[in-house]
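haha ok so turns out i had the wrong file open the whole time. this is the CORRECT one, sorry everyone. sequence first:
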Amino acid sequence: MAALLNLAWIYLRIGLMFVGGGYVLIPLLNHIMVEQYHWLTLRQFLDGLALSQLTPGPLAMLATFTGFRAGGFPGALVATLFIFLPCVVLMLTVGRHYHRLKEIDLIKNTLDGLLPAVVGLVAAAAWNLGASSLSGATEFIILAIGFAIFKWTKVSPMLVILGAGLAGLLIN
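then structure:
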């Protein structure tokens, strides 16, 4: 029971910081899941991150995966529930007053200031993940092709991920 309460507390805190989208949390999730609690190895984290891209709510699915590894089915349920709880409460609260809130200069200016920081956090997360998972020319070629397809076509990200997985399977 103490382990489930610990999971609930950890994912409640993560859920509170989910502002700006899940990708800004990748460095935090890596620190908590891999370095601090050792629920996952770095390879498992990267695999879970890659697999979670095939599902709706990718990083929330990573939370479910980690919760399952840390506490079985009850752990998966607790991690999923508590990572979503803060944003659901926030959206229910803010959603009612959105039209008024979006006109307040303080809120507008704050959000404008947050955007560059979020972009920086996503770039740092991409750099850290790339540095730890790209080891050879093949990976860099797959990265470049995937980036080009995603950037300059309208191909679904799911197809890019599946294609990259197939390429890795055929090449290795």
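The longest helix spans residues 58-95.
again sry for the mixup
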